[in-house]
């Protein structure tokens, strides 16, 4: 039987899961006694709950629990390493880019078209970098499961 | 299987002030429920271990943004679930890759005695049916019937009202019951 009454459904769940008080248990027993199909549904759900409770996940080896913290620590360590590496690399690349741009733009021995191409290359790189960065940040902000509705 | 997910406010305060020792204590306290919750989402023991550890690392990196007024484990679980969903999506296996590690065929907790063969069959069927269920149904069934959390705890973990926990459980159990019957389960 498929019951529509959400109150009865909630009552069944509360009794099944041991979260009902004496009055609720009595109320459900009264409903079950007057409705055989509801009784069948409840009995089946109770039996299936017992079967599910009897088939739990295997416990991992104790050694895995012992090394659990080291797995977390390794991730933290690598996260910090990547952060420092990225900040350093970006700073050096910015400096190198600035030096190169200054050299190219001020070197009057280079043909004008080479300097213009260099300026376009630099400008294009900056635009692409900003675009990718903005998309990444936007994607992160609107990531589907980032803030699961609580 | 029942694990305590309540975290002491003082421990959290020490974590937020940057104490690595306190954070280790926090991880030690929550690693088991974290692992089993990740396992119910991914169905794979190795993935569950990786994702639950990664979620703890993210927690440490973002502890300053945690609002102590909210249940801590619910906040952790949001991160864990996001990582698990990304992982599943990336591998395109939302309903795949459930290893046999997910379910053990044990009968110790079953109230009515059964033959080993029958309980093994039931164990296999439960695993198959859970594989077929949506992540949301599997999640709430595992939280209640495998990890044995109370309604209050499930409400805190999922960030939903207790009434919604009950209605989601009812709907999931109805689908579970139907799929078990479709799979050949006979109620006796």
Provide a descriptive summary of the structure in words.
The complex is a heterodimer of chains A (150) and B (188). Chain A has 150 residues and is mainly α. Helix content of chain A is 77%, strand content 0%. Chain A contains 6 helices and no strands. The longest helix of chain A has 39 residues, at 68-106. The mean pLDDT of chain A is 86. With 188 residues, chain B is mainly alpha-helical. In chain B, 67% of the residues lie in helices and 0% in strands. Chain B is built from 8 helices and no strands.
Summarize the structure.
Chain A has 6 helices and no strands. Chain A is mainly α and 150 residues long. The longest helix of chain A has 39 residues, at 68-106.
List descriptors.
heterodimer; A: 150 residues; mainly alpha; 6 helices; 77% helix; elongated; B: 188 residues; 8 helices; 67% helix
Proportion in helices of chain A: over 70%
**Share in β-strands of chain A:** under 5%
Given as residue ranges, the uncertain stretches of chain A (5+ residues, pLDDT < 50) are none
Number of strands of chain B: 0
Order of helices and strands of chain B: HHHHHHHH
How large is the radius of gyration of chain B? Answer: 18 Å
Unreliable residue stretches of chain B: none
Mean pLDDT of chain A: 86
What is the SS-derived class of chain A? mainly alpha
Secondary-structure element string of chain A: HHHHHH
Mean pLDDT of chain B: 86
Q: Number of helical segments of chain A? A: 6
Choose one word for the global shape of chain A.
elongated
Number of strands of chain A: 0
Give the percentage of residues in beta strands of chain B.
under 5%
Radius of gyration of chain A: 33 Å
* Main sheet attributes: strand count, strand direction, barrel closure of chain B: none
Derived from helix and strand composition plus strand pairing, the structural class of chain B reads: mainly alpha
């Amino acid at each position: 039987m498929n019951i529509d009454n959400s109150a009865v459904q909630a009552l069944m769940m509360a009794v099944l899961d041991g979260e009902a008080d004496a009055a609720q248990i009595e109320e459900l027993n009264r409903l079950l006694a007057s409705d055989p199909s509801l009784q069948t549904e409840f009995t089946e759900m109770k039996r299936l709950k017992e079967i599910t409770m009897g088939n739990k996940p295997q416990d991992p080896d104790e050694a895995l629990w012992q090394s659990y913290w080291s797995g977390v620590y390794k991730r933290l360590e690598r996260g910090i390493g990547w952060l420092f590496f990225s900040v350093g690399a970006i700073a050096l690349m910015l400096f190198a880019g600035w030096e190169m741009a200054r050299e190219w733009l001020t070197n009057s021995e280079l043909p004008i078209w080479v300097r213009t191409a260099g300026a376009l290359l630099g400008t294009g790189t900056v635009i692409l970098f900003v675009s990718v960065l903005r998309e990444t940040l936007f994607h992160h902000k609107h990531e589907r499961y980032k803030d699961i509705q609580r | 299987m029942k694990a305590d997910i309540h975290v002491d406010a003082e421990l959290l305060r020490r974590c937020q002030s940057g104490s690595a020792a306190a954070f280790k204590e926090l991880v030690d306290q929550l690693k088991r429920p974290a692992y089993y919750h990740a396992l119910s989402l991914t169905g794979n023991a190795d993935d569950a271990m990786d994702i639950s550890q990664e979620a703890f690392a993210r927690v440490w990196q973002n502890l300053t943004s945690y609002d102590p007024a909210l249940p801590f484990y619910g906040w952790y679980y949001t991160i864990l679930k996001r990582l698990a969903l990304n992982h599943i999506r990336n591998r395109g296996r939302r309903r795949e890759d459930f290893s046999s590690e997910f379910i053990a065929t044990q009968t110790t907790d079953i109230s009515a005695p059964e033959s080993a063969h029958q309980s093994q069959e039931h164990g296999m069927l439960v695993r198959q049916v859970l594989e077929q269920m949506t992540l949301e149904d599997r999640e709430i069934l595992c939280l209640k019937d495998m990890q044995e959390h109370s309604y209050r705890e499930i409400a805190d973990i999922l960030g939903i009202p207790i009434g919604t926990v009950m209605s989601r459980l009812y709907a999931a159990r109805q689908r579970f019951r139907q799929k078990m019957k479709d799979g050949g389960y006979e109620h006796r």
